[in-house]
Design goal:
Elements (H helix, E strand, L loop, with lengths): L1 E4 L4 E4 H7 L6 H8 L9 H10 L5 H9 L11 H12 L4 H16 L6 H10 L8 H14 L5 H19 L2 H12 L2 E8 L6 H11 L4 E7 L21 E4 L3 H8 L3 E9 L2 H17 L4 E6 L9 H10 L4 H10 L3
Parallel strand pairs: 3-4, 3-6, 4-5, 6-7
Antiparallel strand pairs: 1-2
Helix pairs in contact: 4-6, 4-7, 5-6, 6-7, 8-10, 9-10
Length: 337
Amino acid sequence: MAIHNNILNKFFDLESLLKTYRITVALDEIKAIYNHHSKYYHNFSHIEELLSIIEIDDDRLSLAILFHDIKFDVTKTHHEKASADYFLSVCDADQGIKDTIYRLILATENNRSTGDDLEKEIIRVDRLILYKKDINSLLTWERNIFSEHQYLSVSEYKKGRVAFLNQAYEETGNMTLLELRDIVDKKVYKLGFYPGSFNPFHIGHYNILMKAEKSFDKVVIGVGINFDKKDIEKVDIPDTIRNREIIFYDGLITTELQKLMLEGEISVVRGLRNAYDLQHEEGLRNVIKDFIPEIEFVYYFCDKQYEHVSSSLIRDIISRGAGNSKVSQMISRYTLE
């Protein structure tokens, strides 16, 4: 794979770069790590963009950029240190080269340079988004950052984001960041609330979630817990959806809806497999509207290949076929990792 840099008039051959510096992880694996479903901004496209705009032709800089966010996890701090440590674990180059790349990756954590040109350059390109004055570019960036932080409530996100943009303005003097800050602060987010027992959360549920997320700024998943099963540690939440905001409740759906109405414009998301589901959903809709008349419902039919999948079916198969390898294979087709 080659990435073109117009400034240097050069193509970066990443596979050759990995081979030259005896890096044991394949480029496809690196891309897969960056393109995890939870990454909307800190993905491989971001790496390609940075490599296309650097102004210093140095393999150590290129490798530092390639690895500097590889262990990015929005829920954790010090991911730069984790990324630097990961680089050391997969690189068998000379120690001096490894030490330089390690130092460059760590420079992106505190954004302070010791005066080294390579440190200055990796910090410059990594922070370049903060200097953009095109509001449309900043809004695209904002949408991606919001998606990466969707595990937070809207109020938590707004508080942290406004503080960050204020700090970024102090650093850059870029007035457009203040415009973006005001947009974020005043924005009324369009939210979906997708409640259910989700025991377990399966591919049919995920199919509905993916459809709903195209209609809302984000979808909050509500997992109903039975009164006699309150231990949420025992609830199996697939990794595939852990980056979403998930709330657990053992009371009325209407109570959770009233809380969420403080966060934005709320609609209830419901999934349908067939016309029989629609008849059942009408009853639920009418009851909830008795409590909250203004609440809106949005229904999505799952794709045909998921019509037969249900949580009760999965539980029944598990209970009747425990220890059967074919049953395990079948269940893995229905559930998420």
